[in-house]
From TrEMBL:
GO terms for cellular component: cytoplasm. This is Adenosylmethionine-8-amino-7-oxononanoate aminotransferase. GO terms for molecular function: adenosylmethionine-8-amino-7-oxononanoate transaminase activity; pyridoxal phosphate binding. Homodimer. Its cofactor is pyridoxal 5'-phosphate. Catalyzes the transfer of the alpha-amino group from S-adenosyl-L-methionine (SAM) to 7-keto-8-aminopelargonic acid (KAPA) to form 7,8-diaminopelargonic acid (DAPA). It is the only aminotransferase known to utilize SAM as an amino donor. Its main location: cytoplasm. Its EC number is 2.6.1.62. Substrate binds at W71, Y164, K302, G335, R419. The record marks Y33 as: Participates in the substrate recognition with KAPA and in a stacking interaction with the adenine ring of SAM. InterPro entries: Aminotrans_3, Aminotrans_3_PPA_site, BioA, PyrdxlP-dep_Trfase, PyrdxlP-dep_Trfase_major, PyrdxlP-dep_Trfase_small. It is an enzyme of class 2 (transferase). It is found in: Cytoplasm.
């Protein structure tokens, strides 16, 4: 795909034989959740629009539609002229300055945009380097808030089984302690409280529907746990409606609404982690909108810069900010070196402008329809437990573990880049994906599952 108004992309130079880049990488670089001597990665030699130009170690080359949006961030695709321009123009002014004692237009303007876009009442912004750090800051803020109210015992958090909030230490503590990715560090992580995974919901007629009895039972468990431990808790933290890396689980919005009510009843804060779900991914601008709630604290990231640079943000209400400001500490005690990096803020502002101007709702609705149609044949495969779609998210869940290398290669041979994990083969396409792109993604995933798992 070529963006409107974009220059003709340069033809990438692909290796004619075994790719030396892949060989140089092996044993030198760690990759996420992979051993140094693991399966060789694919080398990227070019990217434009929704396409990646890849090469395998043996020299096999692929042009593939990126069904992952580079881990859910590149919602506008690659080499978008508006984002390229924002990056270059800011680099021509200055690339970075410390945020301690200084400010700059890209940070102020982006903060104003975020306050305008997010649910009403989130009036204050803290910029962080990554989603995990934004969660760390949110947890710190919740503890400082309770301390400011004279509640020093309220230092724990109530989270959800199946949740994932990042790989730094405080964030690891509120991830699923058993089925999450951090069970190797029990002695290093603060012990938190966990509710069962909320009941599943499915999309029907534009609404998320679930079993009312299961929802009521879950709400009862929430109320019981908070009544028992409320004087120890600073906040409830959740991924709203869609749990991402913990299992791509879609759950009932009524559970999110109940968390808001119970937090209010017991003097807790509600933190929503919208790092994966924000900026339209679930079919709402923010997944919190599915339940019609306003959190006390919201974390955003991933798609914030359109996938160009690492940046995240934590937003909070005036009520929370006032308590901290009036406390003896006064400041929110965090300050990354690259906080509010001007390049990242400038690109993020351009990305949000593009999101608002591009008709994202129609784009996501089209992707949702295309994925529902394109992934439907997977339901007939014996290896498949369930197919589910929400907004620009499609999931094929298997009964057993995915053969990741084999499924990845099979999909690439169909012209689709995916990165499965555990028993899940999923897609989060760029919002600029065409109907043909989405059809290719659906067909490629179905063909890969059929070929490898039957």
């Amino acid at each position: 795909m070529t963006h409107a108004g974009a220059d003709t992309p340069a033809v990438p130079v692909l290796p004619s034989g075994p790719d030396p880049l892949v060989a140089r990488d092996r044993g030198l670089l760690w990759h996420p959740y992979a051993p140094l001597d693991g399966d060789a990665p694919y080398a990227v030699h070019g990217a434009h629009g929704t396409s990646l130009h890849l090469a395998a170690q043996d020299g096999t080359t692929f042009e593939a539609v990126d069904a992952m949006s580079s881990w859910w961030s590149a919602i506008h695709g690659y080499r978008h002229p508006a984002l390229d321009r924002a990056l270059l123009e800011q680099a021509g002014r200055f690339s970075h300055v410390m945020f301690g004692g200084l400010t700059h237009e890209p940070a102020v303007h982006l903060a104003e945009q975020l306050v305008a876009l997010t649910p009403d009442g989130l009036d204050h912004v803290f910029f962080a380097d990554s989603g995990s750090v934004a969660v760390e800051v949110a947890l710190k803020l919740a503890v400082q808030y309770q301390l400011g109210l004279g509640r020093p015992r309220r230092t724990r958090f109530l989270a959800l089984r199946g949740g994932y909030h990042g790989d730094t230490f405080a964030a690891m503590g509120v991830c699923d302690p058993v089925d999450g990715m951090h069970a190797a560090f029990p002695s290093l992580i603060a012990e938190q409280l966990f509710l069962p995974r909320p009941p599943a919901a499915r999309l029907a007629g534009g609404q998320l529907v679930s079993d009312p009895e299961a929802v009521e039972a879950w709400i009862g468990a929430l109320e019981t746990m908070v009544a028992q431990y409320g004087d120890e808790l600073a906040a409830i933290i959740v991924e709203p409606v869609l749990q991402g890396a913990g299992g791509m689980h879609i759950y009932a919005p009524e559970c999110l609404a109940a968390a808001r009510r119970v937090a209010d009843d017991f003097g807790l804060l509600l933190i929503v982690d919208e790092i994966a779900t924000g900026f339209g991914r679930t079919g709402k601008l923010f997944a919190s909108h599915w339940a019609g709630i306003v959190p006390d604290i919201m974390c955003v990231g991933k798609a914030l810069t359109g996938g160009y640079l690492t940046l995240a943000a934590m937003l909070c209400s005036a009520r929370v900010a006032t308590v901290v400001t009036n406390s003896p500490l006064r400041a929110l005690l965090h300050g990354p070196t690259f906080m509010a990096n001007p390049l990242a803020c400038a690109v993020a502002s351009a990305s949000l402008d593009l999101l608002c101007a591009s008709g994202w709702q129609g784009q996501v609705d089209g992707i949702e329809w295309g994925l529902a149609v394109g992934l439907a044949p997977a339901r007939e495969l014996e290896a498949v437990r369930e197919v589910r779609v929400l907004g620009a998210v499609g999931v094929v869940e298997l009964f057993g573990a995915v053969d990741v290398p084999a499924v990845t290669l099979a999909a690439l041979e169909c012209g689709v880049w995916i990165r499965p994990f555990r028993n899940l083969i999923y897609t989060m396409p760029p919002f600029v994906s065409t109907a043909a792109d989405v059809a290719d993604i659906g067909a490629g995933i179905c063909a890969a599952v059929a070929r490898v798992h039957g």
